[in-house]
Amino acid sequence: MKKAKWSLVLSFVLALSLVLSACGSSSSKDSEKGSSSELAKDQTLTMSINADIPTLDPNLATDTTSTNAIEMTEAGLTRMHDNKFEWDLAKGAPKVSADKKTYTFTLRDAKWSDGKPITAQDFVYGWQRQNDPKAKPAYNFLFASVGIKNAAKIEDSTNKAFYGKYEKLGVKALDDKTLQVTLEQAAPPFFYSILSQPQFMPQREDFVKKQGNKYATSTDTLLYSGPFVLSKWEKGTGWTYKKNKDYWNAKSTKLQTVNFKVVKETGTAINMYKTGQSDIVQLSAEFIDQFKKQYPKEIQTATNPGTYYLYINEKTNKYLKNLNLRKALNAAIDRQGLTSAILNDGSVPSNYVVPKNFVNGPDGKDFRSKHPDGFSAGEASEAKTYWNKAKKELGIKTLKINFLSQDTSKAKQIDAYVANQIKKNLPGVTVDVNEQPWANYLKLNNEFKYDIAFSGWFPDYQDPMTYLDMWTTGNPMNTIGWSNKKFDGLIKDAQTDTADTTKRWNDLVSAEELMMSEYPIVPLFQQGYTWSQKSYVKGYSQPSYGPEFDFAKAYILKH
Amino acid sequence: MIRYILKRVGYMIVTFYVVITLTFLAMKMLPGTPFKFANRLSPEQLNQLKHYYGLDQPIPIQYLHYLWNFIHGNLGGSFQYGMQPVTEFLFQRFPISLQLGFESMIFGTVLGIFLGIVSGIYRGRFLDWGTVTLAVVFISIPSFIFAAILQYFFSVQIRIFPVIGWSGPMTHVLPVVSIGVGVMATIARFMRTEMVEVLNQDYIVTAQAKGLSTNAVIFRHAIRNAMIPIVTVIGPLTSAVVTGSLVIENIFAIPGIGSQFVDAIVTNDYPMIMGTTELYAGLFIVTILIVDVLYGVIDPRIRVSGGKSI
């Protein structure tokens, strides 16, 4: 009730600010300048953001805001930039043993913000702390995903000999500057990119223990190792980064100050941008057309790796086991209309499982390069053909579909569109939309109390596997009941046989092909970001994997 | 009088206890868990988390546990903020909402009383008609619409005031005006009615008949008497303004308690929901107490204790 009222108020404000901001375009002149290539004296970047930093403890951070702040203030063995990894605290590629299971990294001479050197022991402590159940790690499963030795056993609470015994993790400090990592098998291709994530960053034991419960809750209960330090952090107001002069690569950091201001109203954030009180603003769909007209040179879009699709319940709905019916559902929805008319935020239509612009294979090409447009089941006209075949095969004339979704305003728009497309293109099918709060939605989903359900996925690491292994038989995330032995086999091969990267890559390509030949889901769209940045801001990006807002190498031109 | 107050405080504690209990139960009926990635966690991980947050125990035990901690001034840790104490957030952010509320009240009350007096004196004339119309407009327009309009004209077009913030006098103007005009309108209407009523009373006629000047009649007799009912509306109005400033806080990005409350509900941050509700409830209850006591002071007939305690 509270939430509903609140969203009503929000939409009023939004509508109003739209009307108001459409009235004037006085500030567009300000932005035409800024074409010189000279650096501005004042290297300060200001952004608005709609969320607070909940915590900076790399063990507890699960949200994008915290993760981004950690990635800007701390360093790992690698750092992501423009979707590629660079060596950060590691001096360069590690020495790899003949069996490809042991990786020996040499560390650079780098310092914590209190002047003490960053050592291999700090990495060991950080990794062990991520596997200590008492330190409440949220993402420790990543250690198992990448195959760090014993990680899976340490996480398994039924394994008496290993559970919680983080000292058995495959990581060792040979000396202050040498870190040895042991894996269960040859490292998967995403090994180096995942090392850039907060979970794999060093933490210093004496400092963490001294701070106790206060660790990483304010600017002075933290040690910094990355391009920036936090100089101010006021909950509800915002935070300020300052350049970290002690960072080993400080010469590549040009920004001196970065301000993040917490603003929950999009209309307010946009007013700040228009009046020059912020340099970058994230746009929601309602504002995009207006910005395209008013600030054509400042508006930016990029795809992110969020993919959205419909689950099809094959476990408890006997009709949906029919391939032609699933094909009919896939062909019935005009995705272009969905992304351009409903979403209008840089999202792109998708007919695939693994998103584009996300990961490149051993050949250096995007995973999508073999099937750039995915696996379309056909146009709306073909949907009827499939539907007629399905009707004959199933001996039915009409079909009632229970469409489970979430009760957010964005999901509701999508639901209405999808339901309408199905009804329009598959005569005789009726759709009951069942919109539920998140938790109920999950419950109904896990209990298979739906026919089709709107869902989405974000990657845990930069590899097609993060989008594919969940569809194997018996995986707890497989809440569609689809099962294919050959698919399971391909995934298993890719998981265990990591040494031959080309074969593994081809296995994953084949797995996606195989999966989509049976249409167990209805892919809808891949998400996009749209933001506006002043033309004097350069070197800023919102890559599909890595820091959400990457300003580590950004700079301000004279304007 | 003391007995009256003690009795009221007793009621207050009972009310407060009922509020805590009902909120606790209502919260437990909210669907969902505070764990954002509940679907991606294994059952063991989920149990670990539940144990850590004390959510694995039966609800009656959780309830008693909560009461015990509450009595000791411990409201628990916020789930969204890695278990940082809830009291810390309340102490940090509530004063800002309180300040915004009080400033708006002062702005609205002073202007409202003034307008009400003027319009009461000039009843039926242009000034009165203008004030009444303005009051109706300001009562009908929700404060957030007014805020968005003010922000657009004064911060984006004319650029006199900053768009957001709560750091200097300039940042206070727009939010205080946005909330204050509603208060002003309410008080002005109230004050006008009272003035009109008082000015028709026999003692005013008497005062005029005695030969007092118009100014003396109005200031010494009319306004003072018309003010008494105003005192009684200001209390509840203050509570309403302080707790209702949430949307304005969001529009001007003021770090008050309002948006914290909404976030807490959306993320099932139980300790934060409880803490904020208790604070709001406490504010209401104390305001009502103060108003009741003031009533008693002004009018001895209202006292409940049977009249012997004076």
From TrEMBL, chain A:
PANTHER family: PERIPLASMIC BINDING COMPONENT OF ABC TRANSPORTER, PERIPLASMIC OLIGOPEPTIDE-BINDING PROTEIN-RELATED
Signal peptide bounds: 1-22
Annotated Pfam families: SBP_bac_5
Cellular localization per UniProt: Cell envelope
Keyword Transport (UniProt): yes
Origin: domain of life: Bacteria
Cross-referenced InterPro entries: Peptide/Ni-bd, SBP_5, SBP_5_dom
Domain Solute-binding protein family: 87-477
Name of the protein in question: Peptide ABC transporter substrate-binding protein
Lineage: Bacteria, Bacillati, Bacillota, Bacilli, Bacillales
Family to which the UniProt record says this protein belongs: Belongs to the bacterial solute-binding protein 5 family.
Keyword entries, A-Z: Signal, Transport
TrEMBL record, chain B:
Gene3D superfamilies assigned to the protein according to its UniProt record, in alphabetical order: MetI-like
Record domain ABC transmembrane type-1: where: 94-295
Membrane topology: Multi-pass membrane protein
Cellular localization per UniProt: Cell membrane
SUPFAM superfamilies in alphabetical order: MetI-like
Keyword field: Cell membrane, Membrane, Transmembrane, Transmembrane helix, Transport
InterPro entries: BPD_transp_1_N, MetI-like, MetI-like_sf
Cross-referenced CDD domains: TM_PBP2
Membrane spanning stretches: 9-27, 104-122, 129-153, 173-191, 226-248, 279-298
Principal cellular location given in the protein's record: membrane
PANTHER family for this protein: DIPEPTIDE TRANSPORT SYSTEM PERMEASE PROTEIN DPPB-RELATED
Homology family: Belongs to the binding-protein-dependent transport system permease family.
The protein, known as: ABC transporter permease
